[in-house]
Write a structure and sequence with these properties.
The complex is a heterodimer of chains A (310) and B (314).
Chain A lengths: L21 E2 L17 H5 L2 H6 L18 H4 L9 E4 L2 E4 L1 H11 L11 H16 L1 H19 L5 H23 L12 H15 L9 H14 L1 H7 L14 H25 L12 H10 L10
Antiparallel strand pairs in A: 1-2, 2-3
Chain B lengths: L17 H4 L31 E2 L18 E5 L4 H12 L5 E4 L10 H6 L7 E4 L2 E4 L1 H11 L11 H17 L6 H11 L6 H23 L12 H15 L9 H14 L1 H12 L1 H6 L11 H9 L3
Parallel strand pairs in B: 2-3
Antiparallel strand pairs in B: 1-3, 2-4, 4-5
Helix pairs in contact in B: 2-4, 2-8, 2-10, 5-8
The chains are: A mainly alpha (310), B alpha+beta (314).
Function (chain B): Conjugation of reduced glutathione to a wide number of exogenous and endogenous hydrophobic electrophiles. Has a sulfatase activity.
EC number (chain B): 2.5.1.18
Enzyme class (chain B): transferase
């Protein structure tokens, strides 16, 4: 996952004795140590229940340059070169949901985060599984297409691509409301859970990019307020301090840009084709969902995406 | 695609080839009448949704069986779907009794108003346990393993061992899911609606598959017997069923990957040849069905979602 830029630090930093290192970007901050700030949403998730409950772990680490997760040094921690990554003695763990669940069980946080009740827990599992390939993806794309491409990478995004991405985000926000939140206080029931934590941190991406996520959705807006209140408004603000200033990121270093481009190009290809299917009919250029439309889109694929219109 | 038989044995009973599953078979128990339930057989009793399959546990019901469930577990599946197969295999392997509700996704039955009441996301698999409805295969697998207290190795209670399963499932969602299903769309499902996916996309997908297999073999399998440890877990089941999808359309995923091939053999040996045949027979005959033009024709209302799925191929 993308790191957010800040001052350079020595990598890898030596862990304090007794600490449980959570390698995240420099934006991760944990109670008692004040050493990390949370950047990517996973890192923010990885600490909030414990900060809110004022209990261990109190570990922290690492600052990241953007793209520093692509370095060989970090590959020793996580060969997949992604954040977040957790190191507990000899045990290294990646994947944000896995880390969250590990910390939940190890430090015996209050039951509501990940209930013991079979069906209540299944609801959390269901949301965590669903969001991975849906809301998470569209939130990330919204951030990239609205801000990170033009500001960070200096690569303007066509209006059609942005429209498609925002349309897809809209679809997933509707599913979040209709399928998961419905008329409940929180996503999986009357109490906050890991599902709400994961969801709110994802949604901060498009919010940070300037998207109107909550303004036209009063139900989601009041849910957000409840989540913020449950987590603690200070902690919430602190955790999202950086992402909410995404528009102010300075441009990327050229070598970092080169490393990131293959991944971001794949994202552009996907989104541009979505314009024909995800954008409402009245905004589409083609006549609707037809085979002729599909043929046109297949022809579009033969264009040289390296020469996208600016 | 329809399982019309009622099996009274377990996974060890003789299994007919999938074509014979489509024809009516003698049943040893009458199907339970459920008043007020959804009218699944909407005038097509001989078709896909008219039959109910009752699965009996291999062990007799005794007081020592913990959490003995009421006979009400329903699984809405389609054996063309990778996550559906994982759920199906898990339930059968562990002798979990369930009623199989086959949802014909090519004919678009997952898009029907009736199925919308079951799952508003219009996808399979879906679990229905009394009034409790659950979607997402990993959530269903975890629910079943906990409720029916399956052997610990599937979803270990050990903190770090369980974390490994979740670590795999997280990576699986990003790098396996969505990628390994593409060859089926390219070779079978796209052509079914007259869409040909450009070669450029096919090549990119091959590269993505190769890269994912490399990570699968090196990071997750490594020197271990299975993906998340030394015993079979839910991770192996999810992975195997995704890998079967391109295998079914001729991709030689295991060629030149002896460790991965050995892993596959271990998993299939653990599940048992008959269960694997039962679960895989439909998907492994898909090319033959496509060639003989015996696949159902998707109705026009399904085209938009199929086109959208094809458009998502990077």
């Amino acid at each position: 996952m993308l790191s957010i830029l800040y001052q350079p630090v020595e990598w890898p930093p030596p862990p304090p004795a007794g600490a449980l290192p959570v390698f995240a970007n420099q934006e991760c901050r944990l109670v008692g140590r004040r050493a990390m700030k949370l950047g990517p949403e996973h890192c923010r998730e990885g600490h909030r229940p414990w900060r809110a409950q004022r209990c261990p772990p109190t570990t922290h680490h690492a600052g990241f340059f953007p793209g520093q997760h692509l370095s060989d040094a970090f590959a020793q921690v996580n060969p997949l070169k992604k954040v977040p990554a957790l190191k507990d003695g000899d045990f290294t763990l990646t994947e944000s949901v896995a880390i969250l669940l590990y910390l939940t069980r190890k430090y015996k946080v209050p039951d509501y985060w990940y209930p013991q009740d079979l069906q209540a827990r299944a609801r959390v599992d269901e949301y965590l599984a669903w969001q991975h390939t849906t809301l998470r993806r569209s939130c990330l794309r919204a951030l990239w297409h609205k801000v990170m491409f033009p500001v960070f990478l200096g690569e303007p995004v066509s209006p059609q691509t942005l429209a498609a991405t925002l349309a897809e985000l809209d679809v997933n926000l509707q599913l979040l409301e209709d399928k998961f939140l419905q008329n409940k206080a929180f996503l999986t029931g009357p109490h906050i859970s890991l599902a709400d934590l994961v969801a709110i941190t994802e949604l901060m991406h498009p919010v940070g990019a300037g998207c109107q996520v909550f303004e036209s959705r009063p139900k989601l807006a009041t849910w957000r307020q409840r989540v913020e209140a449950a987590v603690g408004e200070d902690l919430f603000r602190e955790a999202h301090e950086v992402i909410l200033k995404a528009k102010d990121f300075p441009p990327a270093d050229p070598t970092i840009k080169q490393k990131l481009m293959p991944w971001v190009l794949a994202m552009i290809r996907f989104s541009l084709l979505l314009v024909m299917y995800a954008v409402p009919k009245e905004k589409q250029h083609c006549q609707g969902h037809s085979l002729a439309c599909a043929e046109l889109h297949m022809k579009l694929e033969t264009r040289d995406w390296g020469k996208m219109e600016r | 695609m329809n399982s019309g038989n009622v099996t009274t044995g377990g996974p060890s009973s003789h299994l007919p080839p999938h074509r014979e599953l489509l024809s009516p078979a003698p049943i040893s128990k009458p199907p339970r009448k459920r008043s007020g339930s959804l009218a699944w057989a909407t005038g097509q009793r001989d078709g896909i949704l008219g039959k109910i399959q009752l699965e009996c546990r291999t062990q007799p019901w005794t007081s020592t069986v913990p959490h003995a469930p009421a006979m009400g577990l329903e699984l809405y599946l389609n054996l063309l779907s990778q996550p559906s197969r994982a759920v199906y295999i898990f339930a059968k392997k562990n002798g979990i009794p369930f009623e199989l509700r086959t949802v014909d996704i090519i004919k678009g039955q997952h898009r029907s108003k009736e199925f919308f009441q079951i799952n508003s996301l219009q996808k399979v698999p879906v679990l229905k346990d009394g009034d409790f409805i659950l979607t997402e295969s990993s959530a269903i697998l975890i629910y079943l393993s906990c409720k029916y207290q399956t052997a610990d190795h599937w979803y270990p209670s050990d903190l770090q061992a369980r974390a490994r399963v979740h670590e795999y499932l997280g990576w699986h969602a990003d790098c396996i899911r969505g990628t390994f299903g593409v060859p089926m769309w390219v070779q079978v499902l796209g052509p079914l609606i007259g869409v040909q996916v450009p070669e450029e996309k096919v090549e990119r997908n091959r590269t993505a598959i190769d890269q994912a297999l490399q990570w699968l073999e090196n990071k997750f399998l490594g020197d271990r017997l299975f993906l998340a440890g030394q015993q079979v877990t839910l991770a192996d089941l999810m992975a195997l069923e995704e890998l079967m999808q391109p295998v079914a359309v001729g991709y030689e995923l295991f060629k030149g990957r002896p460790r991965l091939a050995a892993w596959r053999e271990r998993v299939e040996a653990f599940l048992g040849a008959e269960l694997c045949q039962e679960a895989h027979s439909l998907i492994l005959s898909i090319l033959e069905q496509a060639a003989k033009k015996t696949l159902p024709t998707p109705p026009p209302e399904v085209y938009p979602t199929m086109l959208l799925r094809i458009a998502r191929i990077p």
